[in-house]
Known about the structure:
The structure holds two protein chains of two kinds.
Chain A: H1 3-38, H2 54-64, H3 75-91, H4 110-118, H5 121-131, H6 135-164, H7 171-176, H8 183-186, H9 188-201, H10 226-250, H11 264-288, H12 294-322, H13 326-347, H14 349-374
Chain B: H1 2-7, E1 12-16, E2 28-34, E3 37-44, H2 52-57, H3 61-69, H4 76-91, H5 97-125, H6 131-150, E4 159-160, E5 163-164, H7 172-195, H8 198-204, H9 212-217, H10 223-226, H11 234-237, H12 258-282, E6 301-309, E7 312-320, E8 326-332, H13 334-339, H14 342-345, H15 351-361, H16 365-369
Antiparallel strand pairs in B: 1-2, 2-3, 4-5, 6-7, 7-8
Helix pairs in contact in B: 3-4, 4-5, 5-6, 5-12, 5-15, 6-7, 7-12, 12-15
Amino acid sequence: MTARDIALxxxxxxxxxxxxxxxxxxxxxxxxxxxGRLQRRMGPMVVGPHGLLxxxxxxxxxxxxxxxxxxxxxxxxxWLAPMVVFVPSFVVWVTIPLAGEVxxxxxxxxxxxxxxxxxxxxxxMVMAGWGxxxxxxxxxxxxxxxxxxxxxxxxxxxxxxxxMLPQSMNLVTIVDDQRTIPYAVLQPLGLAIFxxxxxxxxxxxxxxxxxAESEVMGGPFIEYSGAHWAVFFLSExxxxxTIAVLVVLLFLGGWSFPLMPESAWLGFxxxxxxxxxxxxxxFWFRGTFPRLRIDQLxxxxxxxxxxxxxxxxxxxxxxxxxxxxxxxxxxxxxxxTVAAGYGLYRRWTWPARATAEERLARARAYRRxxxxxxx
Amino acid sequence: MAINRQLDTLDMMLNMxxxxxxxxxxxxxxxxxxxxxxxxxxxxxxxxHLGTEKLCEGEQYSQIITxxxxxxxxxxxxxELVICxxxxxxxxxxxxxxxxYIRTILCELNRIASHMLFYGTFxxxxxxxxPVLYAFKERERIQSLFEAVSGARMMHNYFRIGGVxxxxxxxxxxxxxxxxxxxxxxxxxADDLVTFNEIFLARTRDVGAIDGKTALxxxxxxxxxxxxxxxxxxxxxxxxxxxDRLDFSVPLGDRGDCWDRFxxxxxxxxxxxxxxxxxxxxMQPGPVMAPIRRISRPPKGEVFAHAENPRGDLGxxxxxxxxxxxxxxxxxxxxxxxxxxxxHMMRNAYVADAVLILGSIDIVLxxxxx
Lengths: 375, 370
């Protein structure tokens, strides 16, 4: 390895870090603006035009804030945890391509690398929870461990089903294979599983259970302040963006759909625009849904998503083995997705609406009877 | 044996509150938890003790009204009504009809405002961050109307013994015309956004359930009692103000769980809107204050008055010695009595449910600690 290679690596990593931090800053601003719109308010408006400099102001504030350590905290775990959470979320970006050539290292086992590294963050969560010497942090840390481990399985199964289509773990090959039909069309079920499990994996609403503000008040992060808290925050937003980019690359055709661009820059633009749209959907979830409870989260993971991901896996295997026409996979996958959604509706909303209407009719009849008696 | 003792798991004590954001004020719960399950809960109150009952003994009747504003500080008009009604009952006063209409309108609007706060904060407890802003928008509209009527957004001091302070402002009807439609829309929106949401239903159905008999035994009143299916609403049972002339129904739940408590309150807002509309149609011009002396001196005697507050049955037991100040005032706050059901509801619940159950009881600490 020559000095030039090393310089190149350092340059690439610097660009990557700068790019990711820019993305995080833009995401925090966009999230606050999107939530503001959903909640009939303006969002940040004071610092800079339309609050554009708000993320920079927030970052500055976090960096100059005092870093408090609880007296009883396990200092080593407490200081190490943010790093353990942050490093995997950053390292996976080494192999994520944003266009045909725009990638630090294109690996043949790229997807395997990403899945393997992203699991490491769980250790950091548990360390933060234990090291903080706070009961809410312990609750949150254990919740994080349970949640993240459970939702790794559907993610991996969905990824395996994707890998079977081009028979490669190389992200560039996967994207190039989607030139005519993106995998979202082939595997709507896979997309649904991956997006849901991905949202759970980054702990966003409705799966924000391990730092649920109204219950455990920030969970593992409760005792962190200043720069260390900022590192957690950074990795959370990088993870959100990673999931969005993976959805784009694995299911939405990456840079090669709808048109194969001539230049890498256009492809790059495709990916980034699509990723921001997916992130917006995640923000939209946050503005809309209540939070699940920990046992319900587990049942969603183990009783719904994992069986469905095996079904998805099986369907894809059938499709590949018997070389069926592509629409056979689409139709069967879509049918199962719709059936699962309808099942959820029948389980909860339908009976509640029925009893509510019945009760309302009862109350109205009571009122009518009383009025006729009086008249 | 020694090894076994080491492997035994212990329940963890979790102190929730008084600084916890989900305890709706300065309420403290000590939870004993086994993993995520609640084994036992011990409520601690008194962080917001105001000494209202004692303070009442030293103030003139007209001054007590402001103290009552501070009891249940999200339903101020309803509180003022009860102390005024108690004094009027003792004095045998006839309140002018227009004043009764004004009181009914304001009390029902305040019920809507109070339930809006419940709707928003309960959704927030369940993890949905948007409804609270929708709810507060309507609550703000109602409060600015209150400001136009009484001069204050929250501590109104508007009801008087024998009537109300002054007549309604001139643009009151215009304001009401602009107010009620958005409120109705927000109630419909609440159903679409929260009430029938699958996740919300999964979180609240059969959580913190209590049956009617136990609820009556624990002294529950208001929406919490009606959610169990017990048809007890003072507005129907012992009509006061003008409720016997108005057409409304009392929504009832059937399982007595958190969802029923939520649903009953949402439906109550609809009924309150109907009540306000009827009052606006029927109201005639006239005096708003009975001709009485400036300083009230109720005759010697004892009286109990109560009314259906947004949170339940607020009662006042008033003992007068014939002076311009009461000899003793005893308050029966609905929140305090409803809170007694906490232990019962939290049996076998999860930690996350504790927040929802406390939210669904809808306490106001000013009233609990008084």
